[in-house]
Design a protein that fits this description.
about 140 residues; alpha+beta; Nuclear Transport Factor 2, Chain: A; seven-stranded mixed beta sheet; about 35% helix
Length: about 140
């Protein structure tokens, strides 16, 4: 069977659209699982997904892996909604932006539940996906 140039172009475009759908769904899956594990206080799962060189940025400053884990452990996260996902693959990395609406308390202080933008970078390695970077610019009281 011979394929014409039009058929080959269509198949290439179809393959590319599946790849984009896969990266979008993978980025969304990673973020949903991390939020679920944090809410459930499943620290073994959370810590296993945070890379050694991890960095985050929050309105009160920059954190490394140890400092981020300490912050997460002080949080009491209620119901959450994640939406507006956009994911981009760059080699073995996925950059994910999304909005998160969450009811949470940190150090006994209740944060307002409003949709805020978040950004994460995940890197695929031999042991699976690792969270290497996160930005959460929601003010911490």
């Amino acid at each position: 069977m011979k394929c014409g140039a039009t058929t080959l172009a269509f198949l290439a475009a179809l393959s590319a659209s599946f790849a984009l759908a896969d990266e979008a769904s993978e980025g969304e899956r990673l973020e949903r699982q991390m939020a679920t594990d944090i809410r459930a206080k499943n620290w073994k799962a959370v810590e296993s997904k945070i890379a050694e060189g991890f960095q985050s940025v929050h309105p009160d400053g920059v954190r490394n892996r140890t400092e981020e884990i300490a912050l997460l452990k002080k949080m009491n996260m209620g119901e959450f909604t994640l939406s507006n996902f956009k994911s981009t693959s760059i080699g073995d990395n996925i950059v994910v932006t999304f909005t998160m609406t969450v009811t949470e308390t940190i150090d006994g202080k209740r944060l307002p539940a409003k949709a805020d933008y978040r950004l994460s970078v995940w890197k695929k390695g031999v042991s699976g996906w690792q969270w290497i970077c996160h930005a959460n610019l929601t003010p911490i009281p």
